[in-house]
Amino acid sequence: MKSTIQNKINELNQAIAKVEDIIFTNLVSWDSVQHWQIGETKKINKSLNTLIYKEANIMIFETIIPPKTIFPMHWHNFKEQCFIISGVYTDNGKTYSKDEWVKYDVFVPHEIINNNKNDLRLIVIFTYKPEKLTWPYS
Questions:
Q1: I need a labelling partner for 9 at 20 to 30 A (CA). Which of 19, 29, 104, 110 fits?
Q2: DSSP per-residue letters across 72-121
Q3: Mean pLDDT of the 126-131 span
Q4: Cα dihedral angle (81, 53, 41, 77), rounded to 10 degrees?
Q5: How far is the C-alpha of 59 from the C-alpha of 30, rounded, in Å?
Q6: What CA–CA distance (Å, rounded) separates 116 from 62?
Q7: Strand, coil or helix: 9
């Protein structure tokens, strides 16, 4: 009985996370994302993000950014790589499309824009190298 109730609570939390829109702006740190569990989906800046793989220092997400959506400017204390499954990805005036990689080093600001009429579907890989990192823009 207790596990059935816990399963229902988990299902409700998943449903709420898909509706509640979390905002990523400015620094999004490893500490702020490492608590996600495999299979968990969260709505961030109107996009749906599902964690599909996780190890100590790597997280892989399937991300869907709806048409006419801007994922606001942000940066990380880890590396981010995005593989485009479908759609068109625009950042900093550069456009990328299906089967292309977009890579961001630690602390590199980026803003993802989907100006198109179709979803932008990505595989997003976060890679964290725990070491003393310094902010390069001081």
A1: 29
A2: EEEEESSEEEEEEEESEEEETTEEEETT-EEEE-TT--EEEEE-SSS-EE
A3: 88
A4: -40
A5: 10
A6: 19
A7: helix
Q: Which residue matches tokens 């905002």?
A: 23
- Give me the pLDDT at residue 132, please: 63
Place of tokens 């950014």: 65
Domain borders along the chain are: 2-127
Query: Which residues make Cβ contacts (< 8 Å) with residue 115, sequence separation at least 6?
Result: 68, 88, 90
Alpha-carbon torsion (113, 25, 137, 108), positive or negative: negative
The type of residue at 88 is V
Tell me the CATH number of domain 2-127, given options 1.10.3720.10, 3.20.20.100, 3.30.360.10, 2.60.120.10. 2.60.120.10
Length of the chain: 138
